[in-house]
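Entry 14. Structure prediction run on the chain below.
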Amino acid sequence: MSVQIIMRDGVPEYAVLPWDEYQKLVGAQGPSTAVPAAVYSPATLPRFDDLAVIREAKGMSQDALARSAGISPVYLNLIESGERDPGEPIRRALARALEIEGGSSKRER
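Output returned:
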């Protein structure tokens, strides 16, 4: 597998791989609404600055996720863009709506 790691401040931030290899990863998991392991691994809690990636991998729109979490789409957009850091109750609601175990209690960087 040929993966390019993009770093920020000495910390891996993104992994980029060819589309066909991504499709193999997703296809190996079978049809599912689960977030592909390439995007989210239960070994690491979700980072809320990756929320848009996780949401898109689950096939959810901002409106649908906001409605499920009980917040406004405008507030969700602010969270996804990094302009707002949600409190613990909203983090838990977002994790539940995305069917992710737990939720990071601190914003990881």
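The longest helix spans residues 19-28.
Filed with the rest of this week's runs.
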